[in-house]
Amino acid sequence: MADGKLGDNSTAIAKSKKGMKKETGLCLANSKHANFGEWYSEVVTKTEMIGYYDISGCYIIDEWAMGIWKRMQIFFDLEMEKMDVKPCYFPLFVSNDVLQKEKDHIKGFAPEVAWVTRAGDSDLEVPIAIRPTSETIIYPFFSKRIRGHRDLPFKRNQWANVVRWEFSNPTPFIRSREFLWQEGHTAFATKKEADTEVLEILELYRQLYEEYLAVPVIKGKKSEMEKFAGGLYTTSVEAFIPNTGRAVQGATSHCLGQNFAKMFDINFQDEKGKNAMVWQNSWAYSTRTIGVMVMVHGDDKGLVLPPKVSKVQVIVVHVPSDDAVTKEKIINTCSATVKTLCDSGVRAEADLRENYRPGWKYSHWEMKGVPLRIEIGQRDLTNKQVCAVRRDNGAKVDIPMVDLVDTVKGMLDTIQQNMFDVAKRKRDACIQVTKTWDEFIEALAQKKLILAPWCDEEEVEKEVKTKTKGETGSAKTLCSPFDQPEMPQGTLCFASGKPAKKWTYWGRSY
């Protein structure tokens, strides 16, 4: 609390927390507000999402995080079926000849490419690259499979890992040298079809963030300078972390135009028998999504997970009794409660461990972010009820057993929506509209997400990055939102003083 008061039982609670920290390590040593970086590292490791590995930038993604990833996969795969996108898997390795065929693309990714140069005790005659992305692996296959207009549209999606070795300061989930993602690649007969799909996929990414991860995002178009190397244009969803004042590129949907069709001879015969080149898209989201969710929702107790993606939505904890008969009834009631919830489609588990006290279990599952905790003790048996505690706001309510399923499902829906609403209010409070350079610099110093009128000139964009370069990085364009505010006549670019062409979000980013 801001005034330092802990409420009724403050002394007992403080002593209990001190004891838990000393004996069990349950309490976090770092505060989200005071030391965000250390807090984040502590949260993702103590909650068993991430395990550190002996190669810098590479992490073990443990079951608590993989459970979240699985929920996102289920949602996305169902949407892929609706769009008739076929599942596939392509090799991890790419030959140097194919990689070098794509000059513009490699200029963008060259510093990040990892190479295999030895096999056993022998040097390879020709080094083999590990994919930083898969265009150069997938498009020779497209060239072989696409012959006529009846082969189009041609759509593939793979779940894979990629390796990017450029950076020196990795962050679990947010910037790692190996990460998981879905990677979609499609080809169409016309640009109109490609343009339509770009926005359809971007809307799926918005749904993933806002409706599953409860994280508000901005949909928009990247600048020419920030677009995907070799592509025609790039769209993205952008998230924002209020505690750090940094944006995160949440997912991207690219229209590649016909550049890759030219490079890899992806041609087809149209309905009139004439040769034509396809129009292509690529799109992806990665395990970065999990890191964004942790950063946005986590608190000083640990994770706060949205019900839609949490591996466990409800944890049932028994409050033991000294009476053996009553104790057995409580345990049986906990097991029955879990079965009832699971049979209704709720992901529920019981923590019936005898070697931990209820208070320890409460803190344990709070740290792991389980959306709803149900406590069952002797009083609850007597009153034919359970006690439910929300993770997002700590609210506690007694639920009659006869209303269990409907009430729990309603509470999970409420938690999901409330988490989004709270996150959006915090994000919106950080948005600052600036119209002059001085206002821009002041807002940047205050860690704001800046919306400013811009002339849309690359040289001006480069100049902004140069002028704002510091220990915490440079400010850059994030995206120009599709939902453009009104641009009054005579509005000038905040950086150049030239006539402004669009409103664009700026800020520092991960």
TrEMBL record:
<keyword id="KW-0648">Protein biosynthesis</keyword>
<dbReference type="InterPro" id="IPR002314">
    <property type="entry name" value="aa-tRNA-synt_IIb"/>
</dbReference>
<keyword id="KW-0436">Ligase</keyword>
<dbReference type="GO" id="GO:0005524">
    <property type="term" value="F:ATP binding"/>
</dbReference>
<dbReference type="InterPro" id="IPR036621">
    <property type="entry name" value="Anticodon-bd_dom_sf"/>
</dbReference>
<dbReference type="Pfam" id="PF00587">
    <property type="entry name" value="tRNA-synt_2b"/>
</dbReference>
<dbReference type="InterPro" id="IPR033721">
    <property type="entry name" value="ProRS_core_arch_euk"/>
</dbReference>
<dbReference type="InterPro" id="IPR006195">
    <property type="entry name" value="aa-tRNA-synth_II"/>
</dbReference>
<dbReference type="InterPro" id="IPR004154">
    <property type="entry name" value="Anticodon-bd"/>
</dbReference>
<dbReference type="InterPro" id="IPR016061">
    <property type="entry name" value="Pro-tRNA_ligase_II_C"/>
</dbReference>
<dbReference type="InterPro" id="IPR017449">
    <property type="entry name" value="Pro-tRNA_synth_II"/>
</dbReference>
<dbReference type="GO" id="GO:0006433">
    <property type="term" value="P:prolyl-tRNA aminoacylation"/>
</dbReference>
<dbReference type="Pfam" id="PF09180">
    <property type="entry name" value="ProRS-C_1"/>
</dbReference>
<dbReference type="InterPro" id="IPR045864">
    <property type="entry name" value="aa-tRNA-synth_II/BPL/LPL"/>
</dbReference>
<keyword id="KW-0067">ATP-binding</keyword>
<dbReference type="GO" id="GO:0017101">
    <property type="term" value="C:aminoacyl-tRNA synthetase multienzyme complex"/>
</dbReference>
<keyword id="KW-0547">Nucleotide-binding</keyword>
<dbReference type="InterPro" id="IPR002316">
    <property type="entry name" value="Pro-tRNA-ligase_IIa"/>
</dbReference>
<dbReference type="GO" id="GO:0004827">
    <property type="term" value="F:proline-tRNA ligase activity"/>
</dbReference>
<protein>
    <recommendedName>
        <fullName>proline--tRNA ligase</fullName>
        <ecNumber>6.1.1.15</ecNumber>
    </recommendedName>
</protein>
<dbReference type="Pfam" id="PF03129">
    <property type="entry name" value="HGTP_anticodon"/>
</dbReference>
<feature type="domain" description="Aminoacyl-transfer RNA synthetases class-II family profile">
    <location>
        <begin position="91"/>
        <end position="306"/>
    </location>
</feature>
<dbReference type="GO" id="GO:0005737">
    <property type="term" value="C:cytoplasm"/>
</dbReference>
<keyword id="KW-0030">Aminoacyl-tRNA synthetase</keyword>
<dbReference type="InterPro" id="IPR004499">
    <property type="entry name" value="Pro-tRNA-ligase_IIa_arc-type"/>
</dbReference>
